[in-house]
Design a protein that fits this description.
alpha+beta; 3-stranded antiparallel sheet; 7-stranded mixed sheet; 163 residues
Length: 163
């Protein structure tokens, strides 16, 4: 049994089997891009937590869009970059209460492209060293998301540097 409790713009709240409340949310993409030992991220204000975050470029998959197309679109919109995209893994953001599935892609062979940020977004592109980001998150100097941490772990593994 599936009971709709709330219908929102980008999510619904449903009750399953008369018991579990679940956030029904569209799938999303995250893009890991590295160059010269730096990882590409974006700094932006997140109203849900009322804080500025540094995160990998990411966004929702639009209806009818493939994860790869969404990853290319989000990378272009947020950073004005394009590249070759390869899927790395899939994960759930918080399977205890949400069905949001996340697709992590790696972007290589980066080059400039056209792109427009979504209305109301104020995003700054910021290249950083993965180990320094990891330390800054651990010390509470940078706020980020769990999917970004997964991407950073991949970046750290590939960098071959001590962290």
């Amino acid at each position: 049994m599936r009971e709709l409790l709330y219908r929102g713009t980008i999510l619904d709240l449903i009750r399953l089997e008369g018991r579990w409340e679940v956030v029904d949310h569209p799938a999303a993409v995250i893009v890991l891009a590295m160059e010269s030992g730096y990882v590409l991220g974006v700094t932006q204000h997140r109203p849900a937590i009322n804080k500025e975050t540094w995160e990998l470029p990411a966004g929702l998959i639009d209806p009818g869009e493939t994860p790869a197309k969404a990853a290319a679109r989000e990378l272009a919109e947020e950073t004005r970059l394009a590249g070759e995209l390869s899927p790395l893994t899939r994960m759930y953001s918080s399977p205890g209460f949400s069905n949001e599935e996340l697709y992590l892609f790696e972007a290589t062979q980066l080059h400039r492209t056209e792109g427009e940020q979504d209305e109301g977004e104020s995003i700054t592109v910021a290249w950083r060293e993965p180990a320094k980001v990891w330390s800054s998150v651990a010390e509470g100097r940078i706020v980020t998301s769990a999917p970004t941490l997964v991407g950073l772990l991949v970046a750290l593994g590939r960098s071959g540097r001590e962290w």
